[in-house]
Predict the 3D structure of the following.
Amino acid sequence: MLEIIANKWTVLIVYALTQGKKRYGQLKQQIVGVSPKMLIQSLRNLERYGLVEREVYLSVPPRVEYSLTPLGASLVEPLAILGEWAYRHITDVKTAMEHYDRNPESASSR
């Protein structure tokens, strides 16, 4: 489960869908950097895991909307907490990375 939840695209898709139903084009526009192939693959996986629902409307052309299932919605709060932690500690993490990168000898002695 952690592999699914910790996926970068999962977090961004779930966040986007907290704002309500979205069409593929809306998600593609909102989630900067995701390739069309990766977005489709991620949406299919999230649907398979029961986190996202795909609703097809019989119209011309066919219209598809994605939304969170109750299970997907239950993931919003834990992800928000993780996001808040990341926001509060990004400077600390960057500082640690810079220190590590400047001192390669200390890393090899561990």
About this structure: The radius of gyration is 18 Å. Residues 21 and 40 are 16 Å apart (CA to CA). The longest strand covers residues 52-57. Residues 76-102 form the longest helix (27 residues).
